[in-house]
């Protein structure tokens, strides 16, 4: 259960691999694809541990989603040059009862992701 009072089916965790610590304060937006249009369904900012635990509504449908992370703003706030102004991760939800964790590992000039648990 998150601070907003619901358990999110989609969560994220951002780690700053160059600094060796969680990336606190990274803005993220969650969108769902409906036809040819992306619709915003959630947003948040990473906490001190680099996590957003209430990114999505309490329930999500099967479909295609994406999370857009404002990585350029994060690095600019630290006075650090970076190459990617944002990172967009698109993924599919196939099991509406499952938890989908979308981690992001960032540095000023690279990023990586995987399906977390």
From TrEMBL:
One of its GO terms (molecular function) is hydroxyisourate hydrolase activity. CDD domains: TLP_HIUase. It catalyses: 5-hydroxyisourate + H2O = 5-hydroxy-2-oxo-4-ureido-2,5-dihydro-1H-imidazole-5-carboxylate + H(+). GO terms for biological process: purine nucleobase metabolic process. It comes from the Bacteria. Its EC number is 3.5.2.17. Substrate binds at residues 13, 51, 114. Residues 5-116 form the Transthyretin/hydroxyisourate hydrolase domain. Signal peptide: none annotated. The keyword Hydrolase applies. Keywords: Hydrolase, Purine metabolism. The keyword Mitochondrion does not apply. Homotetramer. Belongs to the transthyretin family. 5-hydroxyisourate hydrolase subfamily. Catalyzes the hydrolysis of 5-hydroxyisourate (HIU) to 2-oxo-4-hydroxy-4-carboxy-5-ureidoimidazoline (OHCU). This is 5-hydroxyisourate hydrolase. It comes from Zhihengliuella halotolerans.
